[in-house]
Structure formats: C-alpha cells, structure tokens
Amino acid sequence: MNVLDQxxxxxxxxxxxxxDPTNRSVLRKIQxxxxxxxxxxxxxxxxxxxxxxxxxxxxxxxxxxxxEFYHDGMVLIHAGYGNDQNYxxxxxxISQFYINQVPISKPTKHFAVTWDFNEFxxxxxxxxxxxxxxxxxxxxxxxxxxxxVDYFSGSSFVAYGRSxxxxxxxxTILNRPVEFEGVTGSLRYYAGATDADGNVYKVxxxxxxxxxxxxxxxxxxxxxxxxxxxxxxxxxxxxTKCKHExxxxxx
Length: 251
Ligand SMILES: [Zn+2]
Description:
Elements: E1 7-8, H1 10-16, H2 24-35, E2 41-44, E3 47-51, H3 57-64, E4 69-71, E5 74-80, E6 93-100, E7 109-116, H4 118-125, E8 136-139, H5 142-152, E9 159-166, E10 169-175, E11 178-180, E12 188-195, E13 200-206, E14 215-226, E15 232-234, E16 246-248
Antiparallel strand pairs: 1-3, 2-3, 4-5, 5-6, 6-7, 7-14, 8-13, 9-10, 10-12, 11-12, 12-13, 14-15, 14-16
Helix pairs in contact: 1-2
The structure holds zinc ion.
C-alpha cells in the first residue's frame, strides 16, 4: 500500500459525486448507502471511510482544479484565468474568474474571486508557515528515488523534515516547499517526501485550495440588461452615454 490509495469521508464522497457537501439530505443518503453496505465503506472511530472507485481523482481535483464556492445560494465554479485587475501590481493578490452553476442555456453571472497571499508569503519567508497535507503525490520510480532525495536535501532547499498525513498515511516532507512552475494565474508549491516503507514522492499544493478568498465580487450579470441600450449588467458600467436602468430577463 502507498499513499495514493484513495479513501474519503461522507462529505468528500459528496464532492466526488459533484454534489453539494453542505446539503444534509445528500450527506444522509450517502451515510445510509454506507450503512446498507452499498458502498465500499467501513466505520473508523465513528466516521465512514469510503474507498473511491477511481484512484487519484479526488486529489487531482484539489491539485489541478480550483475548488468551488457556495456563495449567496449559488455554486460558483472556476472558469479560467485572465482578466485579473491585480496582474502586474505585484501585490500578492490574485483574482480568479468564476461563474455560477446554472442549467445549460440559462444565463450566468460572472465573479472575480480574490485571494490575498501576503500573509502566506511573509510567514513562508520567515519559515513559520505550517504546511497542511499536500493535495497530490507522485510516486517516484526506484532508479529516481535516491537522486530525488538528494536533490531536495541539497543546499538550494531549506530542510523541513515534518511528518504530515496524506490519505491517512504518514509522510515526511523533506524540504520547505517551493513554487512549482504552473499555468498563468496559478500558485502551486511542491516538495520531496518519503514514507516509512521507503517510498519516495513529489508532493504538491495548490495554494488556492488552502486559503479562503478575501473577496467575491459579481462583475457581470447576464440575467439583467438595460432597457434603454440593451447592454448586460456589468459592475461599474459607464453611465455617460446611457443612464442605465437594469431589468431582469423574462423567464
Ligand atoms: Zn443603458
């Protein structure tokens, strides 16, 4: 067994199914499926531990995709990078483009969801940031094990040496994680790690999935338009040519 075997709890299973993990009736239904033996689950100190059918999927979601938010009764989904007002400001803030989840053909609302990484960057620079469980791990093959341990133990890294839980197993993080090259607008870190069985890993964190955003602002509402100029509602709309009057779309 290695840390990539996937086990989750009832809430995690709801997320895995793409359902709202704060919806009590969803959680109760999953719990009942566990009790009736319809899921590969067992009770562990009062909580259901459910084995996921496809290894890696849940973790890769944390790693590759930004989590969704439950905001004002809507589910907001990450819809891409770009259009970030903070770009080029060097203020350690990053805004992501989110839309609300709606049935296909229904108009969406757009949101700028903003994270402020100043506190994190300061505490990591002072070597006081406590790293949580990583979001993803890559098992290293036998020939690459020792070179990888040597690399992350080298002088270009700061030793970390802390044990963390990953999928209920203990791994030791060798070095203070460093930024991992990624796509524009992402903020990812990685480090080397080992476990008690002699396995070696690269482990990864997606920083957007560790911290809560500081601000969620609606920027476009495709449900409303101006009854004079027919423009869709946008935040800070220019009112010099038209004194907009916003009305809702007809259902
Ligand atoms: Zn108008």
